[in-house]
Every structure is written in C-alpha cells, then in structure tokens.
Amino acid sequence: MREEFEDIIRKLSPTLRRITHKLNGHFTFFDEDDLFQEALEHLWVHYNQDKLDDKTDSYVLQGCYFYLKNYIRKTKDSAKLVSLQKMNEENDSSLESFLGYEDHRIEENVENSEISESDAVKNMTERERTVLKLSMEGSTVREIGQRLGISHVMVVKIRKNIRKSFGRTERKTGAGYQN
Q1: Are 166 and 120 a contacting pair, CB within 8 Å?
Q2: What residues does each domain of the chain span?
C-alpha cells in the first residue's frame, strides 16, 4: 500500500512542485515546501480513503490545486501576528525573553528591515504601490490586472520588480531577510 502511494507521489511530484511554486506568491507565511507538504498530506488522506483509485492524474492535481488555494484562503483569514515583546498571558513573559533574545539582535534586524522596506516603498512607482496594496489584500494577478486595466503578465512583471527592489534594499541595509 505504501509503495503504491510512493509511486503516485513520484509521478505527480514535478507537477505538484510547479503548482506550489505558482501559489507561493499569494501568501507570504508559507513557502513552496510548506505548501508541497500540505498537498502531500491531502493526498495521503484521500489515498487512505480510497478516493484516488479511479481518478486521473489531472483530476488529482486539480484537486490539490483547489485544496491548496482554499487552505491558503482559510489560513490567511485566521492568521494572527504575534509580537516578540508582547507579554504571554499564560506565564507573563514575552516570546523574546522565552527564546533568549535579550541582546536585542531581533529588534535591530526588525528596525533594519523596516528601514529597508520604507526605502523600497519610497522608490516604487505609483503602479507598483497599487499592485503591492492589491496583492496584500489578497487579489489574484488576474483581478489586479482587470482592476488596473493591464494584462496579468504585466502584473507579474511588476510584482517581480517589487520583489527585486525589496531584495536590493534589504541587502544594502544588511537586514536578515533576503529574497
């Protein structure tokens, strides 16, 4: 049974990787590997319930795509940001002190990152700012293109330029986050 599932995964993995790569730009909390693991778990559950027996590869992959999009949407709606300095209600200590970051290295990296993001935003065109804002609101590439009256391909190019400008600025300031 396990070997049969591994054969399915071996066959679907390249396309599944492309799907997770495509979806990666829609949500910053997950990377491609996180989404790939989530898809594998989804497939494992369906495999154990014998829901993959009579399905084509295309059908299974499309099901994974829609499952991941829904997973991202639900997670995005329920995501909560946590402050390192905010006190934890359970034991009255901050996450920062719990992790042992007393020397404020985290604050320095966050401050550097904020400075670099601020510089990057200042250097962006009005269209890039609009695309960034709509992307952060969860709009798809096609929705953004429709709203701005440009092609979705142009939206993808603008998003790449935005990523490049953030990466360039972060490297200049020495922040810990790089694309």
Answers
A1: yes
A2: 2-78, 95-173
